[in-house]
UniProtKB/TrEMBL annotation:
This is lytic cellulose monooxygenase (C4-dehydrogenating). Residues 8-77 form the Auxiliary Activity family 9 catalytic domain. Its cofactor is Cu(2+). Keywords: Carbohydrate metabolism, Cellulose degradation, Disulfide bond, Polysaccharide degradation, Secreted, Signal. Transmembrane segments: none annotated. It comes from the Eukaryota. It comes from Fusarium torreyae. Its EC number is 1.14.99.56. The lineage of its organism: Eukaryota, Fungi, Dikarya, Ascomycota, Pezizomycotina. The keyword Membrane does not apply.
Length: 80
């Protein structure tokens, strides 16, 4: 996929592993995954997916402050 020598980390995979910091409080979260394909002159291709995850740990961190509401996440004026 893409140009010679390029690799998509999720190509031909049915799972993606990632670390969740120990400080993250237990609770339900929505993980947003996206790929942007910049290979077409006609415009960017967007590939989105989401996963509901439940974190269960003894994290005592504070609630995240750098979060967004899904409807407000993207604005047609800021996406190239």
């Amino acid at each position: 996929m893409g140009q010679s020598g390029e690799n998509w980390l999720s190509f031909n995979k049915n799972r993606i592993d990632f670390a969740i910091p120990n400080e993250v409080p237990s609770g339900q979260y929505l993980v947003h995954i996206e790929h942007l394909a910049l290979r077409r002159p006609s415009g960017t291709e967007f590939y989105f997916s989401c996963a509901h995850v439940e974190v269960q740990n003894s994290g005592k961190g504070q609630e995240a402050t750098d979060v967004v509401k899904i409807p407000d996440m993207y604005d047609s004026k800021t996406i190239a």
